[in-house]
Amino acid sequence: MPIAIADRRFADDETLAQALALDVANDLRAGIKARGQALVALSGGTTPRRFLELLGQQSLDWTRTTVTLADERWVPSSDPRSNERLLRETLLRGDAAAAHFVPLYVSAASPQEGYATIAANVAKLHFPFDAVVLGMGMDGHCASLFADGDRIDEALQPQLPERVLPMRAPSAGEPRMTLTLAALVSTRALYLHFEGDEKNRIFERIQQQDAALANAPVRRVLQHSPVLPKLFRCP
């Protein structure tokens, strides 16, 4: 059975980035108005760069906004592959630099060694998120929820009390730290953002329950969302 999703298709990546930035900013404004604060989880990679730049230019009370990541590679923030570095280069600039940022990396030799500190910091967040923005890999992973991950069965348990876990996977390269399914779906708005014909085809195969993508973690996350997920995509 296809996943229920609000599918928005855009002619180009700039129009998509503008619309996504406006929607997420509105989610954050609503959180601040209703509860005096807002919480958002964002994804890294190359696809969301323009969206993050435009989100950072939105007018809202960034001092009342907390930003964290859906996942992080276990590399220092100076590394070009660091998601934290991406956020600092794009989103956390100008007025948006006043946001409170909660990283998923600390200076430790491995995710296991840094886990206690990160888990304690994530536990202090005021869940649910006002918005979670996910990407999708060609293998159907989202955040660092890889089908071949060493803790993927645990991370995909919807009732798991842990909101963050270390993850190692042959397909992932570096060790990772990732929010769990239970954390990602604890949100008032869930977005999936990808671009390009190849990923469009992958998602259609997931929707058609292609046996080769039967274990795609993104499907599990979308299925367990308490709100209708919103898909933002373009050619």
Whole-number average pLDDT?
97
Basic shape:
globular
Number of strands: 10
Q: H/E element string?
A: EHEHEEHEHEHEEHEHHE
Summarize the structure.
The protein is α/β, with parallel strands linked by helices and 235 residues long. It has helices spanning 13-35, 49-56, 83-90, 111-123, 152-155, 181-184, 197-207, 217-223; strands spanning 6-9, 38-42, 65-69, 71-73, 100-102, 131-134, 164-167, 176-179, 190-195, 230-234. Strands 1-10-9-6-2-3-5 form a seven-stranded parallel sheet, sandwiched between helices.
Description of the structure:
The chain has 235 residues and is α/β, with parallel strands linked by helices. 33% of the residues lie in helices and 18% in strands. It contains 8 helices and 10 strands. It has helices spanning 13-35, 49-56, 83-90, 111-123, 152-155, 181-184, 197-207, 217-223; strands at residues 6-9, 38-42, 65-69, 71-73, 100-102, 131-134, 164-167, 176-179, 190-195, 230-234. The strands form 2 sheets. It has a 7-stranded parallel β-sheet, with helices on both faces. A 3-stranded antiparallel β-sheet has the order 4-8-7. Helix 1 packs across helix 2 (49-56) and helix 2 packs across helix 3 (83-90). The longest helix is centred in the N-terminal third of the chain and has 23 residues, at 13-35. The protein is globular and about 45 Å long. The two termini are 25 Å apart. The mean pLDDT is 97.
List keywords for this structure.
single chain; 235 residues; alpha/beta; seven-stranded parallel sheet; three-stranded antiparallel sheet; 8 helices; 33% helix; globular
